Amino acid sequence: MKVDLLLDELEQKELLEPAQRILVEQYEKYKPVSLFVYLQTLLYLSISAFIGGIGVLIYQNIDTAGHTILIALLALLTVVCFVFVFRKGTPYRPEKVIQTAPHFDTVLLLGCLLFLALEGYVQYQYELFGTRYGVAVIIPAIYFFFLAYRYDHQGVLSLAITALASWVGLTATPTQLLVKNDFSNPAVIRASIIFGAVVLIVSWFLKRRGIKPHFTYTYVLLAGTLYLAACTGGMFTQDSWQFIFGILLGIGCGYFFINAQDENSLLLLLLSVIFAYTGYTYLLFNNLHDGFIQFLASLYFMVSAAGVIWFFLSYKKILKRL
Amino acid sequence: MKAYNEILIYNQRAQNKANDWARRNLITKDQQSAIDAAYAELPYQPTWFIWIGLFIFTIIGIAASTVVFLPFIDSAFAETWLGPLYGVTMYFFLNYLIKDRKLHFSAIDNAFLYAILLSFIPLTVQLADVAGDAPWLVGMVYLPLMLFITYRYGEPLIAVSTFLNGLYIVTTLAMGNALGKLLLPFIIMIFTGISWYFVRQFMKKESSFYWNIALNWLHVATLLVVYAASNYFVVREGNAALNDLPDPSPEVALAGLFWLLTFLVPILYLYAAIRWRSIQFLILGTVFLVISFVTLHHYYPFISGDIAAALLGLAGIGVAVFTMRYLKTSRDGFIYEPEESSELTVLSGNLVATELGSNASETPQGPRLGGGDFGGGGSGT
Predict the structure, then answer these.
(1) Strand, coil or helix: A140
(2) Half-sphere exposure of B297 (CA within 13 A, CB side)
(3) Model confidence, pTM
(4) How does the average pLDDT of chain A come out, rounded?
(5) In angstroms, how far is CA B122 from the centroid of its own chain?
(6) Are the beta carbons of A58 and B57 closer than 8 angstroms?
(7) What would you measure as the largest C-alpha separation in chain A, in angstroms?
(8) B239, B252 in Cβ contact below 8 A?
(9) Chain centroid to CA B71: how far?
(10) To probe the interface with A, which of B341, B354, B369 has the most A CB atoms within 10 Å?
(11) Are A49 and B313 in contact (CB under 8 A)?
(12) What are phi and psi of A34, to 5 degrees?
């Protein structure tokens, strides 16, 4: 769209004064392109490549001089990151805090990642914690929870939650959630549901107390999705318990829905609708007689899909009314 | 002929502009509200997550609605004509929905458009079969419908598919004879280059406004194809695959030229990015340059992949941090200024952190055997 035409129009309608028009025209002609997203992405991809490369390198050529130097350098870099963080961080406040030091969030995240890599290495090489692997996993979890709350970093919080999940033997990383957890295994399902429920209850309690209320989003997203996926998995694989899992799933979806309103989050709304729809549809068809199913199936999907679409189109009104 | 109400789309642009100007204090809040009121009627635009939900459930609804055809499914008539019949029905229903609900790429209409196009495939294949058995015939028979939909709706993914269909026709035609096969990379580059030129010229015209999004996608698609056709890896492995040559693939003719192009094209894109202040060129140029280095490393592994990844990462961190500082104030038409935090930024922050974390905490599995080898882990590509 040519801006000139719009400007002509606005001037004609007297929505813009001639003097302003010149300013706007100047701005449109010379306005700089923002590289914020581009540079942030470049930075994180580079950190990913760096950590990925280093992560493998530290296990190669173990017991050589070059290797020792590399480890020493990494340890030094980790210390530098944390010293920077401890020195430059703004004081703790329970509400949302924005750090003022440049690149603070990135340095904190980098420090945490290096810490993870080094801790893994020390355990592997020197068996610092022996066979008590749980200790090796819970230490970063505790440390990251502390850092996340102290310096208000939702990325580090999500690291802490995934570390805590892996302490229980679960994977909470969103992209690997369905791949790495075996949701047909009753033990995994049980652990996921309990883990999810406990984390969500604690986070709800913290929110009530006004401690970092904006963290709830990350808790619901990571622990909540694990909980919902486990409920669905339980429903699919354990026939005799399917109604119990159905009820648990319903409670979870309801909780997502409430949070979608509170956090103004449409992703949580989307997740709650998709899980609820899947669960409800499964329960319905799994318990109807075969002959009836074929007749009903298409009709059901047609009507229910239309219903959901209607819901999405008018969710703003619905949410307002609630 | 255009399906969407242009006024609504225009209004949306006007409001977006006014919003931007108000944020820069070029106009007052009152003026912004006045402009919003003057351009009040907008198309329905859901946010991303709602978009995904609408898309999924529209597809479910479209698929389930085929139930009305169940009684006819076994007849000979059905195989050819049921699809198009359903397609035409959807076409009219879609046009009604667009008017009634003021849709404009609001997931529902996108899903319908894809379904309409797909519903004509059986008929297309049969028609092409009647005409002969050359592979390009299918593309040729399908092309008019694609062009019509692209023109009428300007849907970006369909526009790109139409371009790719054109590319498919040209490619299969060229592969029909020995000379065409030999010159294939150049034919693709020339066809795509010409397409790019026309897209770019058309974008500059006011009359292209209705297809703005589609043209942007086409712009990216053509730049992508040009790079792919000139990349040494694609040319060499493609050549081997097309001619059923044994593994490892043999050296191709004009290897030097293709190596030159592999690095020249991304650099040209980066130059264009600075010259035209284009974020599109910048992203493509950066990504392709990295891919070019990976290509080089693939054939001439002068250092191990892990060292390369670590060094590349370190260089990237350096470049990013330096540029962030350099562009604190606007220079050369670029600037680095934090944008408003949205749900998407919080979400991507969470995803990035967990992804990096699972990368960083990976330790070798199994018993220690004095420095095992497990190359390739997370080589940032």
Answers:
(1) helix
(2) 18
(3) 0.86
(4) 88
(5) 26
(6) no
(7) 79
(8) yes
(9) 40
(10) B354
(11) yes
(12) -85, 130
SS3 B83: helix
Q: From A154, A140, A219, select the one nearest B363 (Cα to Cα).
A: A140
CA distance A181 to chain B (A): 14
B278 contact partners, CB below 8 Å, separation of at least 6: A33, B272
How many Å lie between the alpha carbon of A199 and the closest alpha carbon of chain B? 17
> From the list B14, B58, B374, which residue is nearest A6 (CB)?
B14
B370 versus A58: which is more confidently predicted?
Answer: A58
H helix and E strand count, chain A: 15, 1
Distance of residue B238 Cα from the nearest chain A Cα, in angstroms: 28
Size of interface A-B (CB pairs under 8 A): 298
DSSP B47-71: -HHHHHHHHHHHHHHHHHGGGGGGG
A63-79 CB burial, b ≥16 within 10 A, e <16: eeeebeebbeebeeebe
One-letter amino acid of A7: L
Of B54, B310, B350, the CB nearest to A155: B350
Amino acid letter, residue B223? L
What's the CA gap between B332 and B221, in Å, rounded?
27
Residue of B70, B316, B335 with shortest CB distance to A42 = B316
Backbone φ, ψ for residue A183 (5° rounding): -80, 15
**Most confident by average pLDDT, A6-10, A293-297, B364-368:** A6-10
Asked if residue B205 lies in contact with residue B186, where contact means CB atoms within 8 angstroms, the answer is no
- Report pLDDT digits (tens) over A132-179: 778 888 999 999 999 999 999 999 999 999 999 989 888 888 888 888
